[in-house]
Design a protein that fits this description.
The chain has ten helices and seven strands. It is α/β, with parallel strands linked by helices. The chain has one domain: Rossmann fold (3-Layer(aba) Sandwich), CATH 3.40.50.300. Strands 2-3-1-4-6 form a five-stranded parallel beta sheet, with helices on both faces. Helix 2 (about 60-65) links the parallel strand 2 (about 30-35) and strand 3 (about 75-80). Helix 3 runs parallel beside helix 6 (about 155-165) and helix 4 (about 110-125) packs across helix 10 (about 225-250). It is globular, with a radius of gyration of 18 Å. It starts with 8 loop residues before the first strand and ends in a 9-residue tail after the last helix. About 35% of the residues are buried.
Amino acid sequence: MQRNNCADIICIGTQKAATSWLHTMLNIHPNTYSFPNRRPITSTNKEVHFFDWNLHRGVDWYRELLTPAQPHKLSMDFTPEYGLLSVPCVKLCKSINPKSIVVFIVRDPVARATSALRMHYLWRFGRERVDDLSIEFDEDFLRVCQASDLFRFSQYVATWERWRQHYKDSLVLINYEDIASDPRRAILTLFERCGLSLDQLDEERRARFDEALGGRVWESQPFRVSTTVVNYLEHVLAPHRDLAERHFSIKFRETVC
């Protein structure tokens, strides 16, 4: 019998907002399923990138990749770039994942952008240069901004509204700062939303859960970001921060470091 969804739990980002941590925590649960790593077609066992990299492979490929051997398990696709999808792509997602839980994590736009810049600079210039890297307001900075979709990732309300058109009753918003301040409460709240329980973890999985609770999966290297760059990001991203705070009735308090 064909499953209702290709992916039962979809995370659409945002990038650099603990999506990898959230996937790790959910993946510990015995009733969830992560597809086998097919890098570079996918990004590890977390990001399928079907709707942006692999659409040409077809829905049957996507469904086969995400179908667990045990039908009761919830399959996961955590691809932050899905937050940038167009309305037609979101509509397609809904047609093949009609009953999915869709998770969207928002983070202070300047803190998120700074973390993303550090990640992209390391990819671009190499991890061996961490000690002498510094993000300055120059041509490299402008190129990385463009290549990384830095500002589009900060358009939280626009992303939310595109997805809400099709996933109104199953769209879950998480504030990154709630994960940072009380990770246990954040993950247990999502467990409940997905029909999962901590009581279903055996002793070994419970130990892994407790160990991972306070950790990070991909932590950006904290090399220098110039004051000029931070001020520029504050200027450009302040409207997105203000709009998100009003729209979602939340408050961003994270500081850039």
